[in-house]
Amino acid sequence: MKTAAPRLIASLVAGLATALILYGVxxxxxxxxxxxxxxxxxELAFKMIPLELLIGLLIGWLVYGLFGRRQAxxxxxxxxxxxxxxxxxRRGGAFTLPELExxxxxxxxxxxxxxxxxxxxxxxxREGETYRLS
Length: 134
What we know:
By secondary structure, the chain is mainly alpha-helical. The protein has helices at residues 5-27, 42-47, 49-72, 77-90, 97-103, 108-121; strands at residues 94-96, 124-127, 130-133. The protein is rod-shaped.
């Protein structure tokens, strides 16, 4: 089971970094350093803390959503089919279902589903317990 800790940490770092950068921008009036004879505008930077935190929160939420979308996505069927093709080519075009289940990254259920799908599409043929590429 995947935990949400890396996702949460990444979003917190992104949000806090954004807020800190915005604080620096407001402190220096958006002008690049060095500002030798100018006094930093601490009052403006302090007044803008709610805006800085709001933008940081939005960036953190965006990172959280983008990072989690990939984790929550279902495995793509074409990638699983490619795994079966590669496995079959390494075996000379023929394999058995137990071999595929144990010697490939696919789980037993995924292997069965992909093999059934490829059989229906006519890309595999079955000869007893052995499957061959068509």
